[in-house]
Amino acid sequence: MNGIESVLMRVSGLDSARLERWIAEGWVRPDRQGGILVFQEIDVARCRLILELREEMEVNDAAMPVVLGLLDRLHRTRRQLRRVAEALEEARGPGAGRDGAAHG
């Protein structure tokens, strides 16, 4: 868990005003514990991603929510596909190959 100062130290090029704006925009969503913002590793990674999108890919403020929404959707879909693949693998049982046929 990280506070604002820790995030600012870990994300080169990020300042408190920019981070506070991203939180207000909903681009970064830290937890709140007793009125204090608590950032998880995923929040730190998202800050780095937003900086990269803005500075290297020149994504502007109007496009940022769209880009972040699409990336979030992509990650959700990948997690769902991973769960489906794991369930299929489990359903095949031990000794089954990728084509579903038992080897032996």
What key phrases describe this protein's structure?
about 100 residues; mainly alpha; Multidrug-efflux Transporter Regulator, Chain: A, Domain 2; two-stranded antiparallel sheet; 4 helices; about 5% strand; elongated
Structural commentary:
The protein is mainly alpha-helical and 104 residues long. The chain has a single domain (4-92), classed as Multidrug-efflux Transporter Regulator, Chain: A, Domain 2 (Orthogonal Bundle). 59% of the residues lie in helices and 6% in strands. Strands 1-2 form a two-stranded antiparallel sheet. Strand 1 and strand 2 form a beta hairpin. The N and C termini lie far apart (49 Å). The model has no long low-confidence stretch (mean pLDDT 90).
SS-based structural class?
mainly alpha
Strand content: 5-15%
Oligomer: single chain
Shape: elongated
Q: Total helix count? A: 4
**Proportion of helical residues:** 55-70%
Predict the CATH topology: Multidrug-efflux Transporter Regulator, Chain: A, Domain 2
Order of helices and strands: HHEEHH
What's the rounded overall pLDDT mean? 90
The tally of strands reads 2
